[in-house]
Amino acid sequence: MKLAAIDIGSNAARLQISTVLHNDNLVSFKRVEYVRFPLRLGHDVFNFGALTPESEVRTTKLLQAYKLLMELHEVEDYMACATSAMREASNGQEVAKRIGDLTGIKINIIDGRREAELINDVVVHALDDRQYLHIDVGGGSTELNVYVNREKINSKSFKIGSVRLLEGKEHKGAWRKIEDWVEENIDSSQEVTAVGTGGNISKLFNLASKISETETTLSEIERIRDFIAGFSQEDRINKLRLNADRADVIVPAADIYTSVMKWAGASKIIVPDLGLKDGIIQLVYAHLSKQKRVL
User: Fold this and answer.
1) For 108-112, 121-125, 147-151, which range has the lowest pLDDT when averaged over its residues?
2) How many Cα atoms sit within 13 Å of 45 on the Cβ side?
3) Distance CA 285, CA 166 (A)
4) Residue 116 has pLDDT above 90, yes or no
5) CA 134 → CA 42, 83, 108, 269, distances in Å?
6) Are residues 94 and 226 in the same domain?
7) Is residue 117 part of a domain?
8) Quick one: average pLDDT of 38-54?
9) Whole-angstrom Cα distance, residue 201 to residue 253?
10) Could you give phi then psi for residue 157, rounded to 5 degrees?
């Protein structure tokens, strides 16, 4: 059985198709297809407050392509979720409905709390009983979650993200709000380890020297950030071989990760290969399994 997730973010839209694997009573998901396309909806919304007709056309075409891929893979069920850019757009609901009518794909516009919950549902499996600060940086928002003993103690969504910073549209006082929240919710008497999710931290992690297969240090992320910042946009693309839509946002994103880690006193960061798309697939499987039990 194959399931799919569509994640429509402020910077890019992603399609992930996974096969459901059963090993005795253990269920796992194996990725068989992953496509990412840089829609940059955040550019419209953070500058103009609404999605432009051009972005609507591009999104419609992309979802039509994603639908064909899902049909070729014979996907049994899927879910499409949109985050910061579409939920903040003044015409987000209307655009989502029109795209749905044309493509047959219903777009669920989820709030920051729901977005964090879906990511947390998969990230928690990578944790143990220590104190963790989960940092998820998207194009338009940053979600922070504190875990102790694999239980979420608190969480908060902030309107600051890589594309929003690039456009100079972060909300006034956003940095201070994050710093205050971290100070209030991290137990400084205990060691804290950061957990990073999102495309930018994954790319930074790939370039960094590592402590283990999934862990590196704050100083190493800072070193890679400064290394990339020393190149022009053109050289980041041609010499560092970064995608154009990654080359301009990776430094602002790194600034969020490193700032939050410093405020929390976290010297290490774990970067599991997980994100919203994985949480969506897990949710789709749960819904499908429940329906089958009812039948």
Assistant:
1) 121-125
2) 29
3) 36
4) no
5) 23, 18, 24, 9
6) no
7) no
8) 94
9) 8
10) -105, 135
Q: What is the dihedral of CA 271, 149, 138, 213, to 10 degrees?
A: 0
> Order of strands, edge to edge, in the sheet holding 77-82?
26-37, 13-23, 2-8, 77-82, 107-109
Q: How many CA atoms lie within 13 A of 158 on its CB side?
A: 27
Q: Which residues pair with 103 in a beta bridge?
A: none
Q: Is residue 118 part of a domain?
A: no
Largest CA distance in the chain: 59
CB 194 within 8 A of CB 132: yes
Contact 60, 182 (CB under 8 A): no
| Residue 178 and residue 142 in contact, taking contact as beta carbons nearer than 8 Å | yes
CA angle 124, 129, 130 (to 5 degrees): 100
* Whether residue 58 is found in the same domain as residue 142: no
Instruction: Read off the amino acid at residue 273.
Output: D
Residues 135 and 122: their CA atoms lie apart, in Å, by 14
Q: Is pTM beyond 0.90 here?
A: no
Q: Is the pLDDT of residue 7 over 70?
A: yes
Least confident window among 61-75, 108-122, 230-244: 108-122
CA angle, corner 272, sides to 176 and 31, nearest 5? 130
The encoded tokens of residue 200 equal: 């930018």
Structure tokens at 91: 């015409």
Domain with 77, as residue range(s), is: 2-112+277-294
- Over residues 177-183, mean pLDDT: 96
Read off the tokens for 159. Answer: 């309107």
User: For the chain, how far is it from start to end, CA to CA, in angstroms?
Assistant: 18
Place of tokens 């693309």: 237
Q: What percent of the chain has pLDDT over 90?
A: 79
